[in-house]
Write a structure and sequence with these properties.
The structure is a single chain. The protein is α/β, with parallel strands linked by helices. It contains six helices and 14 strands. α4 links the parallel β10 and β11. α1 packs across α6 and α2 packs across α3. The longest helix has 15 residues. It is globular. The two termini are 20 Å apart.
């Protein structure tokens, strides 16, 4: 009997609680999800929304990516709490620093994935997480960054422009009804990066609430990272669980 893939469903994967150690001496808590019975073809290093506004490693798009994409698209998904952030997994050491000291958190996550031999790393940031991806992604050996609802509050025009002409790709999903940056303004703000890919999502909102928006975001991520896995199925014939 097949099960519709929606809401809190969790598909099979190898899941491991992990600790990331930053170069300024903090331990960050996280989880690594891998395909259940094969090696991943690419890796998503996820960066969560603003912790002072409730963002954490379990923010729903990132949680659902980890719950579904190892099984549906052969992806490794690394989630973690940035410094001072709490979730049911635990609390990462340190204190929120507005996106500055968090550069060490990004570095710790990329380093962890590299040490595990995980292939083809992509940063996937959501809201505040996009600021970290834009500001610090070019410091690392990644394939690119996927930005979900980028507000561009903390990333400077110079940090955005630095992506121009770089081999690492920059893809941004811009919700039609975003609270901070809508498609027309995004086109202007990213004009300095002519090779960036901006995807205006009709009907989209900053928080991507609802199954249709969740599926759209996950499809867009997979279309960049492992397009051979498309279209993502909407039903699952094997074992599953509820989060």
């Amino acid at each position: 009997m097949s099960t519709e893939i929606r809401g809190p469903i969790v598909l099979p994967a190898r899941r491991e609680e992990v600790d990331l150690v930053t170069d300024d001496g903090l331990t960050l808590v996280g989880e690594l999800a891998l395909p259940a019975d094969r090696d991943p073809v690419a890796t998503l290093v996820t960066l969560h929304p603003l912790p002072t506004a409730g963002g954490f490693m379990d923010s729903h798009i990132l949680r659902k990516a980890a719950a579904r994409l190892p099984a549906l698209a052969d992806l490794a998904v690394l989630r973690f709490n940035t410094r001072g952030t709490s979730s049911p997994r635990g609390t990462s050491e340190g204190t929120f620093d507005g996106g500055e000291a968090e550069q060490h958190d990004v570095a710790a996550a990329v380093r962890f994935a590299a040490e595990r031999g995980l292939p083809r790393q992509w940063l996937v940031g959501w809201s505040f997480g996009t600021e970290l991806a834009v500001k610090y992604g070019l410091d690392h050996e990644i394939e690119g960054a996927i930005l979900l609802s980028p507000p561009l509050h903390r990333a400077t025009p110079e940090e955005v422009a630095a992506w121009a002409g770089d081999r690492r790709r920059l893809i941004a999903l811009i919700p039609e009804f975003d609270d901070y940056l809508r498609p027309a303004e995004a086109a202007a703000r990213f004009e300095s990066v002519p090779d960036a890919t901006l995807i205006a999502v009709e009907g989209g909102r900053h928080l991507w609430v609802g199954e249709s928006q969740t599926r759209r975001v996950l499809e867009e991520i997979v279309s960049v990272v492992n397009p051979s896995a498309l279209p993502l199925p909407v039903e699952w014939d094997g074992p599953s669980a509820a989060a």
